[in-house]
TrEMBL record:
InterPro entries linked to this entry: C-N_Hydrolase, C-N_Hydrolase_sf, Nitrilase, Nitrilase/CN_hydratase_CS, Nitrilases_CHs
Source species, domain of life: Bacteria
PROSITE patterns, per the entry: CN_HYDROLASE, NITRIL_CHT_2, PIPLC_X_DOMAIN
Alphabetical list of PANTHER family matching this protein: CN HYDROLASE DOMAIN-CONTAINING PROTEIN, NITRILASE
GO molecular function: nitrilase activity
Protein known as: Aliphatic nitrilase
Family: Belongs to the carbon-nitrogen hydrolase superfamily. Nitrilase family.
Domain called CN hydrolase: residue spans: 6-272
Any Pfam family matching the protein: CN_hydrolase
């Protein structure tokens, strides 16, 4: 039975809406702050760099062109100087970092989660498999290759973004790989109080069902930022509340008072032996499973738009120069 104690941090801060440089600086400062508090595992909000595309929630598609192009300009290429800066910070402080970014891959944007191990290596790059509602105007789709649990300094880590947690088979794909710590993140400052309530239910349920710890980070917008995103007070209401930064045990309990407003870093200690304590009673992918009745088929192949095959060798026609005339006629 494991007896490790892992200190986790969930970061709820505002991005820099001016672009990725300012937001990356906030990420690096938060890593240092959390590490100073003893954190070994740090989670940031959904697509935190450069910022979540709030504009897509409050603007009709015909008016989104300028904001969408600005997001293209400020999004992150992987690898890049920005990802290297986060990797260097993770290595310097010996921490595992889960960061949400808008990833630019040539002409497409993706909602991407990056897991940096404590040695600075990029342990996982995965893309949200299905953007939600308004997000489909912004991001492309991920694939099954990203539904992967990775070994890190703090244990086996899996990650999903936002409403991917409403896809039970996506969650089950990670559960079958025996994730110990689940990193989750949502945009925050969206929809209203009901969004925070829904997040809490979802995070607690996954912790219970998976028998793992859940570290969830939601974003935050200041009042000035909300007003800058849209002048209509009615639409500004759609960018308030909806925050639920929390850390949940395998028994479904909060390990610290959740953050539902303002900026802050939530800190809690994860007692890893609670995983076995929970799974002794109910292991959804072990003794409580019935694979002969119900099982998951998971296509782990990366989705490729081009699959190249080498050309087959060209067969030469037979040569008859050595055949006599009679043999040639018979042929």
């Amino acid at each position: 039975m494991r007896t490790d104690i892992i200190r986790a941090a969930a970061v709820q801060i505002a991005p820099d809406l001016a672009g990725r440089a300012g937001t990356i600086e906030r990420v690096l400062n938060a890593i240092a702050d959390a590490a100073d508090k003893g954190a070994e595992f740090i989670v940031f909000p959904e697509t935190f760099v450069p910022y979540y595309p709030y504009f897509s929630f409050v603007q009709p598609p015909v008016q989104q062109g300028t904001a969408h192009l600005e997001l293209y300009q400020e999004s992150v290429v992987v690898p890049s100087p920005e990802t290297q800066a986060v990797a260097d910070a993770a290595r310097k402080r010996g921490v595992v970092v889960v960061l949400g970014v808008n990833e630019r891959d040539h002409g497409s944007l993706y909602n991407t989660q990056l897991i940096f191990d404590a040695d600075g290596s990029l342990a996982l790059k995965r893309r949200k498999i299905t953007p939600t509602y308004h997000e489909r105007m912004v991001w492309g789709q991920g694939d099954g290759a990203g539904l992967k649990v990775v070994e890190t300094k703090v244990g086996r880590v899996g990650a999903l973004a936002c409403w991917e947690h409403y896809n039970p088979l996506a969650r089950y794909a990670l559960m079958t790989q025996h994730e110990e710590i689940h990193a989750a993140h949502f945009p925050g400052s969206l929809v209203g109080p009901i969004f925070g309530e829904q997040i809490e239910v979802t995070m607690r349920h996954h912790a219970l069902e998976a028998g793992c710890f859940v570290v969830n980070a939601t974003g935050w917008l200041t009042e000035e930022q909300i007003q800058s995103l849209h002048p209509d007070p009615k639409l500004q209401k759609a960018m308030r509340d909806g925050c639920m930064t929390c850390i949940i045990s395998p028994e479904g309990r909060h390990l610290a008072e959740p953050l539902t407003e303002g900026e802050g870093i939530l800190i809690a200690d994860l007692d890893m032996k609670l995983i076995t304590k929970r799974k002794r009673m109910m292991d959804s992918v072990g003794h409580y499973a019935r694979p002969e009745l119900l099982h998951l088929v998971h296509d782990t192949r990366p989705a490729e738009t081009r699959v190249a095959f080498e050309a087959a060798p060209v067969l030469q026609p037979p040569m008859y120069s050595d055949l006599d005339e009679k043999e040639t006629r018979h042929v």
